[in-house]
User: What shape does this take?
Amino acid sequence: MSRPLKVTDMHTGGEPLRIITSGYPDLPKGTILEKRAYVRDHLDHLRQILMFEPRGHADQYGALLVEPDLPGADLAVLFMHNEGYSTMCGHAIIALGRYAVDQGLVTPDGDRAVVNIECPCGMVRAEVTIRDGKAADVGFESVPSFLFAGDQKISLKNGSEISFDIAYGGAFYALADCCQFGLEFGRDPVDAFVEAADELTRAAQAAIPLSHPDAEDLAFLYGSILTDGQDTFSDRPTRNICVFADRQVDRSPTGSGVTARLAAMHARDQIATGQRRTFESIIGSRFSGSVASVTSCGPHPAITAKVSGRAYYSGKAEFIVEDDDPLADGFLVR
Assistant: This one.
């Protein structure tokens, strides 16, 4: 680390986003997936410095802005967390939409601004509402998303059998009703949900090979989402918790997770195109979600989803590393 790492911190629905504004070396030219691979293979120590303690924590999340490769992109981003680098992050898109307007990276047109954000999963279009001259709510339209495998069954360590789906919303998730684990939102502690979701993720990873029509780098199970089971054709809010990467807990409803849920719900005729649902997180924060369009992704019937929320600034920082610091590389207690 040859120079300080400067960041702007935001949160969307309580989920942190650390936007890295300077301090990384220039990356080689190439596709966004090639940049992701380069950062993973050559600059991962910088992720650990920023995400891990004492500068971060086990549930920290980050965004590194890089040079766009796709025509029409206003900015490009690599997402990072406690385990590595994800392919899509909805809460980050919502925050980056506001950030792009506030930093003058895009110019509003009246009461809205469109921000085209190149992600490892593809181009994501964010629309920022301008209210009283300032960026406010942000909605994004996802990449094509689909139900990959429905009604899968696995046996848990206690011998019980559960049913789950795997769906793609820019990243792959296992989706399951939490009641199958004997859990109930508002009654059971978060740790119990983490244990259940982590068991589901590990079992699903071992049992079901994944593939994606666009790139093999997208074909990995990012985590599991436990829901309240309210996927039926309804206008009532529905609650979920997303546990991803290395048992990392999303404080928001999870933008890419909401997208995956919408794709699975649409495949089961549980939501109509244009119908809005409210998705609530483990801390009670909310995103609005709907099916924006029907499309396809390779052999998969697919949708694009519209997910909306609000992001807020929480601070700015400049991080350094002293040469004789024995804990300079960062650490995690859990």
About this structure: The chain has two domains: 5-141+313-318, 146-309. The radius of gyration is 19 Å.
